[in-house]
Write a structure and sequence with these properties.
It contains twelve helices and 19 strands. By secondary structure, it is an alpha+beta fold. Helix 6 packs across helix 9.
Length: about 550
Amino acid sequence: MDTQRLILFFVFTFSTFMLVDAWQRDQKPQAPVVQAAAKNGEANGIPVPQAPTAPSVPAAPQGAAPSAAPSGIVKGGQLIKVETDVLRAEISTLGGDIRRLELKQHKGTLDKSKNFVLFQSTADNTYIAQSGLIGAGLPNHHTQYTVERREYQLADGTQTLEVRLEAPEVNGVKVAQVYKFTRGNYVIDVSYDIANGGDAALQPYGYFQLVRDRKPPDGDSAMLPTYTGLAVYTKGEKFQKVAFDDVDKAKTPYSKTSQDEGWVAIIQHYFFSAFLPKDKIPREFYTSKLESGLYAAGVKITGTAIPAGKSATVSAPLYAGPQDTKTLEKLAPGLDLVVDFGVLTVIAVPLFMVLTWIQSWVGNWGIAIILLTVLLKAMFFPLQQASYKAMAKMKIIAPKMQQLKERYGDDRQRLQKAMMELYQKEKVNPMAGCLPILVQMPVFIALYWVILAAVELRHAPFYGWITDLSAIDPWYILPVLMGASMIIQTRLNPEPPDPVQAKVMKIMPVAFSVFFFFFPAGLVLYWLVNNVLSIAQQWHINNVLEQANQKLGTAKT
């Protein structure tokens, strides 16, 4: 396989990958409209989880199993509005669900004049966080709570804001669901304060779950392979994605129980939510399909046994915000893995760290992409030099190869033999350019995933008409320049002896550049800069070798 064929192999493999991914997305069943969507204080009739029964978690006391969950729609409740410096939340008094969550420091995907909304409960989209206690008489997400007021706001100079919802007292047991918000933080502490005023000891179990339909988020593109679905992290299996189709088939590629660590999440491009139970607490994980096209990812935890007359708390922090790697790795083991850098994560993570460091100096993500591309080019310069020299030598002997083709016609065996003799005579190794390309390929693919997945590049401006490196070029100038650079690069390389392959090489730049019309501007910028540098390097090498060849020819005459 010569260099041209290797390039074709890489290009068409990449193109096929994108086309297959687009086809798979197109063939996925559309998310059904949630007819039972919660709206105007209504809540879906989502069943209450049963108490944990795995051996690693103590069984629920006899008679503590909850009654059957209500069916259909449970109406009622009012919305409590909460605002901090980074969040606007709406909590329903029915069940205490977070029914809407707006991120004030991130703009909407389609409408940048509005803030990004992660949680919502509308007629065509449901994504909420809910929780409750398991046991007869204990409050769950069907309980009607009372609250002191309907609006809460984090005051200037205050670091925390607490919202307390009181459940009806049952058998002497008083329970309050408490949300604690912190300034500058996307972590919301969700807890239940339980005061056991009854005559017997109480063993509480808590459940914390995220509920979502399978509708792709706004701006989701079939041309870009991003994941929307559930995820579970356990100590044994580590990070495991659980796709909606896996839930439909009741697949559970994770350990269902753990004594000390693990979390559940729902992930989409750039953002996610996750319940993060504290370490050293027994827990049980579950993923399930609910009515009305909804899916749940949840965790049940075992609270401390509460003697009569005593109090205790059951809690699990909720993270709901951007996939900020620096923040996530400090919150829980493996939480930074929700940032999907693809199968080449081991290469992508160092690249992202370097890209972030460069951006901290230059203050512009577009400039950082350019400088990182230049840095990678410099790092691979010796390898690329060998590759381009091989292609330049092939271009010099291209006329002689054409003469051989005309001489031997369709006699491929004699043609191949004559070409090998020509390679030996001219000291040309057609395989010399293959290894450098293979070595560089994983690095450049990893950088592709970095630019695609990093939330830091979302809505990041460059210059001029490029106001968002994560969106397509509004005037398609970069994709056009990208196509032009591919045409120039093709002409600098030797024309393949096979006429069909030669035609493909001429059409490929135009066809391949079509993909870039749908790619984020940051990705196109990276490829464009890489091509420009490659053109400069190839042009220089071609000139040097052609001049050397001319001097050699003059000396012989």
